[in-house]
Amino acid sequence: MNNFDLHCHSTISDGLLEPRDLIRRAAANGVELLALTDHDHLGGLAEAREEADALGVSLVNGVEVSVSWGGLTIHVVGLGVDAANARLAQGLAGVRGGRDSRALQMADSLAASGIRGAYEGALRYVSNPALVSRSHFARWLVEKRYARDVANVFEHYLRRGKPGYVAHQWCSLEEAVEWIHGAGGVAVVAHPGRYRMSASERDRLFNAFKALGGDAIEVVAGGHDHAGVREFAHLARKYGFAASRGSDFHGPGESAVDVGRAAPLPPDIEPIWERLAA
Ligand code: AMP
Ligand code: MN
Ligand code: MN
Ligand code: MN
User: Fold this and answer.
1) How far is the CA of 56 from the centre of ligand 1 (A)?
2) Could you report the per-residue pLDDT of 27-50, keeping only the tens digit for each?
3) How far is the CA of 191 from the centre of ligand 3 (A)?
4) Nearest residue to 132 (alpha-carbon basis) of 148, 143, 121
5) Domains of the chain as residue ranges with CATH
6) Which of 13, 41, 119, 134 most suits a substitution to test ligand 1, by most atoms within 8 Å of the C-beta?
7) Average pLDDT of 142-153?
8) Which of 138, 250, 134 minimizes the C-alpha distance to 191?
9) How far apart are CA 137 and CA 242, in angstroms?
10) Is the pLDDT of residue 278 over 80?
11) For position 277, what pLDDT does the model report?
12) What are the Polymerase/histidinol phosphatase N-terminal domain coordinates in residue numbering (predicted)?
């Protein structure tokens, strides 16, 4: 396997491409094994599979679950899940159920700092009403020139401590791993380099994840630089996790790394795709 990309998004969550177009782009970029991992939602997989079958791309059913752990938001990717599994479907419905009221709170909070109409504005960028995310707010805020790009909006408006940030309770780490395993999948800590946590917090997270039977971490992720890849390869070996590789591609012009174009996995590490029945 030369090119596997096990983390990306479509319009079912906060990606810019329809599942079909995402698959076409992945195929054009030489991806052999792709996981579509929309936030808290499995709704894009059927369309993605149709196109993947037509183009000869192997598709892995995926999802990126929003988790609250130790006061932080952590993302856990499930790979190889049965999309018909009732418990997983119910769990995800619960996780995304709070998104709309959170979005209204975010808009209130932005209004309190003088930015009005953010909820309606964000909705213009939403394609799946069940999945309003901070990315949709970010796109509207860029349109309104509150910041020059999406990354900048997050820095000034949407991350913890900023005016549009609203604390939210997602599911527990335990629930996420249980739902994923219960649906026949493997559980992967997404982009571990992105969490603002100390080394000791990270150690606690990896130990907790290991104790729950967690399978892998993303060693190569869209947001990891060279040093990050080396560091997480080392940590994967240390904790006995397999390694995943994902671009976290959201759309052309927005994501730093295109689908299938993340760095290669370092050698001497078990790639998680070997455990996935494609
Ligand atoms: P939410 O699930 O609504 O909290 O939104 C999280 C999404 O916001 C992530 O999946 C990313 O797509 C996006 N995001 C978070 N932080 C950043 C950032 N610093 N720059 C760009 N996008 C970000
Ligand atoms: Mn996202
Ligand atoms: Mn994520
Ligand atoms: Mn993602």
Assistant:
1) 31
2) 999 999 999 999 999 999 999 999
3) 7
4) 121
5) 4-96+172-277 (3.20.20.140), 99-158 (1.10.150.650)
6) 134
7) 96
8) 250
9) 34
10) no
11) 56
12) 4-69
